[in-house]
Structures are given as C-alpha cells and as structure tokens.
Amino acid sequence: MKISHKYLVEAIVFISYVLFAMAWVGGAASMQQIMSSMNVDSLASASFISGMVTLAKIVGTFGAAWIAIKVGIKYAFFIASLLITIGILTPFSPNYELLLLSRFLMGLGGAFMVVYFNPIVMHWFPVKERAVINGLNAVAFNVGTGIVLWKMNAINELTGSWKMSLIIFSLASLLFTLAWLLVKFDPKQDASQQAEGEEESHYSYLDGLKDKFNWIYGLTYSGLLAFYICLFTFYPEAGISQSKWVIGFGIIGTLAGMIYSKKVAMRLPIIRWSGAMIVLTIIGVSFSTVSWLQTLSAIVLGFFVFFPITALVSIPHELPKMTGQRITVVFSLFYSISYLVSTIVLWVFGKLVDINQGDFTASFILISIVSVTFFIGSFFLPETGKKAEKEELCAE
User: Fold this and answer.
1) Predicted confidence band at 396 (pLDDT cuts at 50, 70, 90)?
2) Where are the bilayer-spanning segments (predicted)?
C-alpha cells in the first residue's frame, strides 16, 4: 500500500508536528515536576531544559538541508520523525544529563521537520495552493500547544500521570513515523511542481549565507520567536496565565491569515502592521496590572502573532527561480538564524530574573524591545506579491 494523495500526505505532516508540539510543551508544562525530580532550583538552569529543544533547533535547522540533499526529502522527514519519538526517554530519565539529551534529540527532530515542510509543500502542491497549506502547517504547533495548555490536566487524569502522557505522545508520533514510510515520492512530480519554466540551479549553504535575503528573513522572525518561547517558558512563572488566550486566538489568526493571503497578493503590509500590534500588545500582556486589559492584550496578541505568518512563509515560495533545493536551504538558514537569536534572548531573560531575585521587570523590557524586529524587518523584505497583483489587475 502506497500513500499518494496530497491531502493525506499533508495530514501526516500536520499531525506529526502537532504531536511534536504536544511532547515539547507537555514537557514544559511539567517543568515543576521535572525541576523537583532533578533537584533544579535555578530558573536559568530550568529554562535550559526547555532550551535544549531550542538549541537543537539551531543545529538541526542548519544541517537539515544537507541531510535532505543526501537522502532525499522522504527519508529526511522519516529521520526527523524518528528523532521526535526519542522524547519517550524524557519521563524515564534518571538524571539531568539524560533528560537534556532526550530533549535535545527530540528538538533535533522537530528542527528537521519544520524545514522539510516547505520542500514537501513544493513537491505536492501547485503555487496557487501553497499559501493555504503553508498556513495550515504554521498552525500545527499552535494546535498541539493549545491541546496541552487547555487539556493537559485532563490528559494526565486519563493516563494516570504526566509521565504516561508524554509516553503516549511519543508512541503516537511513532505510528505516524511508520505511516510516512508508505508515502510515495515521484521525482517527476517534483519537477513538474517546481519548474513552471524555471531550470534547476545549484544553491549551496555558502550561496545561502551570502544571500542577504536569508539574514533579513531570519532576523525579522527572531524577535517574535524569542517572545513566543519566553511566553511558555517564563510567563507562567511570573504569574501571567493568559498564554492560553494567545494560543487560542493564534489559531483563529492563522486561519484568518490563510484566507487573507489567498485573496490579497501583497505580503508586506500585513507583516508590518501586525508587527506594530504585536509590540503594543506584548507590552500590555507584560506590564498591565488590570486583569481584563491583560487578557484583552493576550487575545489581540494571539491573533496578530499568527495572522501574518502565512504571508511571511509564502515570500520564499514566490521569489524568482525558486527550486526545491534552494527553498530547503533558505528555510534551513531562516530557522537556524532565528533560533540562535531566540536562544540567546531566552538565556538572558532567565539570567535577568535570577539577578533581580525573581523580579521580571527588566526581562519584560528586554523581550518588548526584541519583539520590534518583526516590524522593522518588514521594511527590508522584498514584496513578492506585487507582480501577482499587477497581473491579476491586467487580467481583469
């Protein structure tokens, strides 16, 4: 039996990343139990447990393209899925070192997987469908996170413990890993999807590092990513519990962004104005002392964090002479650059809390400033939707 229907393939990809999110955030949600079992009493040290997944993403996203070139996208995605299942070791870890290793390997798998979304989408879907599919993949992490934030206690009650819940998440990942082996990849189909008159050209890591677009693209996203990681790692420790609203309305924002990006060709306006709203609402969530205003800020923040993501991830797909190899390198560098910056910010954030004896004020100022990169980056990214919009107007 071979799986060759594109929407079934997308379902496997989508659910695989949902399960990764559940395993990662489930570990973060169980941080108090993990800290207790490992005798970890420093917030900076505790954040390093979650940070191992982020660190793995730097290494993984940078090396993902090389693996894909060597073994092909199908088996590269299989390796990614297999690594994610190693998260099953987390609940069995007898010491801090093995816990870090299991989180690192699971994070490595997640890093590979997020890079492979784009060549898979390019392989299976024509250009006109890619914005919607990219948006769907972008919301996968939110769905998994939302399930854990809203239902982790219920899941734990059902399974008997947080450890058993993490084990079940990993076993489910294993099932979808095996299902992926049934997917049929046709090289001719890949050529027909990406070609559209363009010839295949070699695009190496060195070419990617020399390409200023990749640096602008990664740095634009880095501030937003840094905040998003801090939101789940530190904000609950600061007594801010509105993160669930960010996730819930993030899903709505992603769906709205998919519809908007399908109907409106221009990419930068939605990124720019969403970036401005993100900064304002991060300040509201972080510094407001009025509960209803903090909740309202979280709701608006969640929507605008994910509303522009479909447009953002569509930009490389719409660049001229884009090929499967090039887009793999582009997103490899995109995620490695953004995760490198966010990991540094994550560590500094936790360190500032420790230095200030548990006070989060300086850390919240830091993350508010860092989040401005999304807004600033919109002035330097290329507008790839302009040509499509002009052609549409001419056709009318």
Assistant:
1) very low
2) 7-26, 46-68, 75-92, 98-119, 131-150, 162-183, 215-236, 242-261, 273-290, 296-315, 327-349, 361-381
Question: Where do we find the tokens 């870090």?
Answer: 100
Residue 195: inside a domain = no
Distance of alpha carbon 199 from alpha carbon 191, whole angstroms: 10
* 213-250 tens-digit pLDDT: 999 999 999 999 999 888 877 887 788 877 778 888 98
- Residue 126 per-residue DSSP state: -
DSSP letters for 336-384: HHHHHHHHHHHHHHHHHHHHTTT--HHHHHHHHHHTTHHHHHTTTS--T
Please tell me the total count of domains within the chain.
1
Q: pLDDT tens digit string along 187-223?
A: 655 544 554 445 556 788 888 899 999 999 999 999 9
Structure tokens at 289: 């002392």
Q: Are 242 and 300 in contact (CB under 8 A)?
A: no
The sign of the CA dihedral 159, 165, 171, 174 is positive
* C-alpha to C-alpha distance for 99 and 85, rounded to whole angstroms: 14
pLDDT for residue 296: 95
- Determine contact, residues 91/28, Cβ cutoff 8 Å: no
- pLDDT at residue 53 tops 60: yes
Compute the CA torsion angle 244, 249, 255, 258 (nearest 10 deg).
Answer: -110
CATH of the domain at 349: 1.20.1250.20
pTM of the model: 0.82
* 279 band by pLDDT with thresholds 50, 70 and 90: very high
Q: Is residue 394 part of a domain?
A: no
**Do residues 223 and 340 touch, judged by C-beta distance below 8 A?**
no
Structure tokens at 40: 């970890």
For residue 289, tell me if it sits in a domain: yes
Listed in sequence order, the residues at least 6 apart from 361 whose beta carbon sits closer than 8 Å to its beta carbon are none
- What domain range is 69 assigned to? 6-185+207-382
